[in-house]
Amino acid sequence: MRCKRRTQTPMPIREIATKPYLDQKFGTAGLRKKVVVFQQPHYLENLLQAVFDCVPELAGQTLVIGGDGRYHNRDAIQAAIAIAAANGVARVIVGQGGIVSTPAVSHLIRLRQAAGGFVFSASHNPAGPDGDFGIKFNIGNGGQAGEALTDAIHARTKALSLYRIAEGARVDLDRRGSSRIEATEVEVIDGIADYAALMQELFDFPRMRDWFKRGGRLVFDAMHAVTGPYAQRIFVELLGAPASSLLNATPLEDFGGGHPDPNLIYARHLVELANAEDGADLLAASDGDGDRNMILGRQQFITPGDSLAMLAAHLHLLPGYREGLKGIARSMPTCRAADKVAAALGIPCHETPTGWKFFCNLLDAGQITICGEESFGTGSSHVREKDGLWAVLAWLNVLATTGQSVRQLAQAHWRRHGRHYYARHDYDELPTAAAQSVMDALKGRFAELPGSRHGDYGVTAADEFGYLDPVDGSQASAQGLRIVFGDAARIILRLSGTGTKGATLRVYFERYEQAEDRLDLDPSQALAPLVALAEQLLRLAELTGRKAPDVIT
Ligand code: VG1
Ligand code: CO
């Protein structure tokens, strides 16, 4: 038996005094704050200690750590390793350079049977010294901690007076290999390889290689965030796409000053490329931490809700999904296109609150195979996070397998299932009271609205969405307000849970059309009557003082 030296360690484990923090509450996806907030002495340490206190099984087990490469990523990772070591974690697995995308962290947790993982990211929120930072904590199934746990962590952060840390511990994040801090083994790994291997199990790589050989053209924009190296490995090295297929593929600490949010505003240049005469066959982008995706084809933007529905309709053609789909889920504000596909396939379609964590129980219980959100999130049972590159590969595989273009696939889909025109209007950085007043005013009209008519639309229901998890019976209340006009349309209102300044009000519009001559309308014109109606019903200009939304996606 080997004898462990326990005294005179070079990196003593210290208990350091901290004050309780009151603002460490997790939102829709982790905790997000300005970088300067995270840079306060003991702030991150306090939060991490609260996690270790609330998840005692991390001691003696494996912890995965990754991040999106943004400013403060490396410092946060060093702190997390030192605190993990002081809290008895047996093994820390961290991505080289601190780079691991959110879906790849989810996969690593599952692959290495870790007890949990940290993702340091504020997703698409701008980065840099004046930007945002964030942390997500994922549990052993690879999914984000649920509300019961994050509430317990929050309670703990408000009570802590000490945290434990292996003082002075520093790991060379750029060199792959193992080292030790006290009794903890720290493994710096290639954060791309295991994820790329998983994609090769799910998708038909030879067929996609062939698609490129036959002249198929892809443009993928990594927006200077985490997916650059993944795209390089998968599209260029494994699939043989020309290197010129990739835009902004080097991760930068400030994301190049940009806003890596793949949508019609922040990835506008892709829309222009798609509309160009000689546009590529598939154009796509991902966000800061690699979990979102935007899909376009030549002359055709695919809304996230349509992407979910169209992928659901074709998924059985792809190697990892030959057995067919068990079920589909979408977040409540996501358009109901997926419901039509589920009905046609004779499988259930679940409606969940916003935030990927609500899909995880359904995925774990084997009740769904694919799920998605209107916010450019799509994913499947392969991990417990939404997965941007997965969605791009799924589309690529569908194109390669069917031989059809994105536009042909979309049009055939709408002819069969009808089309859901869709848009989201965001009012950013509102005073909290103004945002709340819009919500309250609508709630105040819930009794009178059902049965009322407004132009072409009759209200069939007006309510606040709540969710009863069919797997564990947990409940989530106050998950958004809905005005439902039967199958024809919906207007939905929610307050964001990811912002770092003021309140963000989101208004979602959905209009369904089945008539052959209404399948190819200009989306913003198709939605104009509903937008006008919302202005009347919600008094947005009056209550917010804003003439128009800040962002339309
Ligand atoms: C937004 C989106 C939601 C998404 C969440 C996290 O939340 O609406 O659909 O799951 O961001 O996305 P909210 O509460 O601001 O509406 V991301 O790419 O973390 O990581
Ligand atoms: Co994200």
Which features does this protein show?
single chain; 553 residues; alpha/beta; Alpha-D-Glucose-1,6-Bisphosphate, Chain A, domain 3; TATA-Binding Protein; 3 domains; seven-stranded mixed β-sheet; six-stranded antiparallel β-sheet; 28 strands; globular; disordered N terminus; binds alpha-D-glucose-1-phosphate-6-vanadate; binds cobalt (II) ion
**Helix share of residues?**
25-40%
- For the record, what CATH class of the largest domain applies? Alpha Beta
The domain count comes to 3
How many β strands by DSSP? Answer: 28
Name the structural class.
Answer: alpha/beta
Q: Segments where pLDDT lies below 50 for 5+ residues?
A: 1-9
Q: Please tell me the overall pLDDT.
A: 95
Return Rg in Å. 23 Å
Number of alpha- plus pi-helical segments: 17
| Shape assignment | globular
The CATH topology label of the largest domain is Alpha-D-Glucose-1,6-Bisphosphate, Chain A, domain 3
Strand order of the largest sheet: 2-6-5-3-4-9-8
Major sheet characteristics: 7 strands, mixed
For the termini, the CA-CA separation is 63 Å
What are the bound molecules? alpha-D-glucose-1-phosphate-6-vanadate, cobalt (II) ion
The CATH superfamily of the largest domain appears as: Alpha-D-Glucose-1,6-Bisphosphate, subunit A, domain 3
Strand content: 15-25%
- Looking at the overall shape, the CATH architecture of the largest domain is 3-Layer(aba) Sandwich
